[in-house]
Amino acid sequence: YCHPMRFLDYVHEDDKARVLKVFNRRPLQNWDIQYRIYDSKGEIKYLHDRGSLIFDDRERESRILGTADDITREKVQQQALMSAVTKLEHLSKTDSLTGLANRREIFSQLSDEIARMDRGQQTSTLVYIDLNKFKEINDKYGHKLGDKALVTFSESMSRLLRDSDRFGRIGGDEFVILLSNIESKKHIDKVAQKIIDEFKEPIMVDGVTFYVSISIGIAITSHARAT
Question: Which of 173, 189, 197, 206 is flagged as catalytic?
Answer without folding.
Answer: 173
